[in-house]
Amino acid sequence: MAETDLQYSIRKTKELFRRRQTGEDWARNLLEGSRRLKTVDDWDMYYAFIANPDAYEENKIPARTGTCCVHEGVPTDYPDFMEVRKVINGGETIIHVINKRSRGEDDEKSPT
Predict the structure, then answer these.
(1) Which of 27, 54, 57, 108 sits in a 20 to 30 Å window from 99, CA-based?
(2) How many CA atoms lie within 13 A of 109 on its CB side?
(3) 51 — alpha (psi -120 to 50), left (phi > 0) or beta?
(4) Residue 84 and residue 99: Cα distance in Å, rounded?
């Protein structure tokens, strides 16, 4: 049976982390390891693997907490008071989520 893109990506990422273990290599390992991923489900599984490699179970897709952009795996259903700014620079996308609510509004630390 042929190896799927997800299986390849997980195997490749593990191999890269064994060979390149410094903090400077962390992002490079993830970028190179995930290069073949194409579907939202594969990205979800890959994120589940990265978040907890020891508890990762193949073919068990974690529950989604929001809608995702098809090609980016980025949540898009933020509340109205959140502003999402996206900057695309070549192959890199930087997403900045800003809370536009004033400090006193619905602050969990304020006494009720």
Answers:
(1) 27
(2) 2
(3) alpha
(4) 9
CA–CA gap between residue 74 and residue 11 (Å, rounded): 24
pLDDT tens, the chain, 112 aa long: 788 999 999 999 999 999 999 989 999 999 999 999 998 888 888 888 888 888 887 766 555 544 444 445 556 667 778 887 877 777 777 777 888 887 665 556 555 5
85, β-bridge pairs: 96
Read off the amino acid at residue 12: K
How many residues are recorded in the chain? 112
Here the tokens at position 39 are: 């579907």
Q: How far apart are CA 74 and CA 60, in angstroms?
A: 20
